[in-house]
Specification:
The chain has 451 residues and is an alpha/beta fold. The protein contains 18 helices and 15 strands. 38% of the residues lie in helices and 14% in strands. Strand 1, helix 2 and strand 2 form a beta-alpha-beta unit.
Length: 451
């Protein structure tokens, strides 16, 4: 196939700085059996990172596939979320022991050495099973294409949301006649809203949960609001840092004000969801909290993060199917992997129950999806995604979040000045742009991430 070699020892040496600790402590919780099912002629080995409610929903979809396709035996395994999963997947692909199908966050695909550790999708095979480019948001599909080839098949879009308690806020005038939160389009308007909400907040609760101590959430919020301001990261060739420290400072000051004005309490930084259940008016959380809040039978709603800088943009990532590299990929097993992925993508109504926005757009127009609440309130986030830059060090739990996230936290908590933090962020971006991807030894400019 003309791919340069990458053995297990080289890979371990290369990713030594990418949180390998604990990478062998993964959990394999597969539901498949070692032997082929009696009526099956083909096996598809599938690795994913879904636990909790997402895990149950995925198992339900897999069981439905098995029932409809008895000739394909799906051997699924659930591995530990985060760096351990990615390390295990990379080692398996490098050692020619990769599963037939896997799941990755779309933002991590560029750094996974496409063409070396990942194989491209056969778009003709996907079309055979009813999945084609026209069925996806154009920006989402474009993110999955590297060097002209499709390396990821998006399953969903998961976004950061502004959850609000309708029952708490209905006496404040912040709930409109349509039963939804009154829109705001400026920072002043947003803080006026929090000021009113604070009047309705019970003693002992914060006005809004913001995960102020969490590097991932603070980074995701920063990405959203920096995108609202039209901020950029690098030039088109990924050879120059274009990060705007003035715009970054505006965002950092905005996040900091929530703490400085007493709306978010650092001492309650990791209990936003719990406090929301107990009556906190607002919390910013990922859409995966929908089952939790709905299960608690709250009277609540959820919108994309407020467009306080005048432009709609909320942080978004995507769970996507990938084909880990196999030297002999092809034949019935490869076709079975395409068929399974296409089936799950097309039957994502079950997946939407977990709060995720299905990537397969025909699902969004169905009567069943339109009835889902609050999903039908934030589905528009599909069209204004704020993504991390398309470079090898970005993506969920990636180096970019690990390096920049704590710096954002220092500003939000008040231990560092926003202007100084913005300059530090630009310095880190400059360092990372010059770094080589341990997966293939290429910088961002050499790695094919730019479009």
């Amino acid at each position: 196939m003309g791919r340069p070699g990458l053995n297990r020892r080289q890979l371990l040496a290369g990713i030594g700085g990418l949180t390998v600790a604990g990478s062998f402590g993964f959990a394999a919780l597969g539901t498949g059996a070692d032997a082929l099912a009696s009526s099956a002629s083909t096996r598809v080995r599938y690795w994913n990172l879904f636990s909790g409610g997402d895990g149950y929903n995925m198992i339900a979809m897999l069981d439905a596939f098995r029932k409809e396709h008895p000739g394909i035996d799906v051997k699924d395994s659930t591995l530990q979320w985060g760096s351990p999963f990615y390390t295990k997947l990379a080692m398996a692909a490098a050692g020619n022991r990769a599963p037939d199908l896997g799941v990755m966050h779309l933002g991590r695909v560029t750094g996974f050495s496409p063409g070396r550790l990942l194989d491209p999708w056969d778009v003709g095979l996907l079309a055979k099973y009813g999945v084609k480019e026209a069925d996806f948001n154009p920006a989402l599909w474009k993110r999955a294409v590297i060097d002209g080839k499709l390396y990821a098949l998006p399953l969903d879009i998961h976004v950061q949301l502004c959850f609000y308690r309708k029952d708490v806020l209905k006496k404040t005038g912040l709930i409109g006649d349509d039963g939804r939160l009154v829109p705001v389009t400026s920072t002043d308007g947003w803080f006026d809203m929090l000021k009113e909400a604070k009047k309705a907040t019970r003693k002992g609760l914060q006005t809004i949960g913001l995960w102020v101590n969490d590097q991932n959430f603070q980074w995701w919020f920063f990405v959203a609001f920096y995108t609202q301001l039209g901020g950029t990261w690098f030039n088109a060739d990924n050879t120059e840092v274009t990060f705007d420290t003035d715009k970054a400072t505006q965002v950092l000051e905005f996040l900091r004000q929530h703490v400085a004005d007493g709306y978010a309490d650092p001492g309650m930084g990791s209990v936003g969801a719990e406090q929301f259940v107990n009556g906190t008016p607002f919390t910013w959380e990922g859409n995966w909290s929908v089952p939790v809040f709905s299960g608690a039978k709250l009277e609540y709603g959820a919108t994309p993060l407020p467009p306080v800088f005048g432009k709609q943009a909320t942080h978004a990532e995507s769970h996507s199917f990938v084909l880990p590299h196999q030297a002999g990929r092809g034949g019935a097993t490869n076709e079975g992997a395409h068929q399974l992925a296409a089936y799950v993508v097309k039957h994502a109504r079950q997946w939407a129950a977990g709060g995720h926005i299905p990537a397969y757009t025909p699902t969004l127009s169905t009567a069943a999806y339109k009835k889902l609440s609050p999903q039908n309130e934030y589905v528009s986030a599909m069209d204004h995604q704020a993504n991390e830059p398309k470079v090898w060090f970005a993506g969920s739990t990636g180096i970019l979040a690990q390096r920049v996230g704590p710096i954002v936290v220092s500003s939000t908590l008040g231990s560092a000045r926003p202007q100084a933090v913005a300059r530090r962020m630009k310095g880190v971006l400059t360092q990372l742009l010059a770094m080589k991807n341990p997966m293939d030894g290429k910088t961002a400019a050499q790695g094919g991430g730019a479009v």
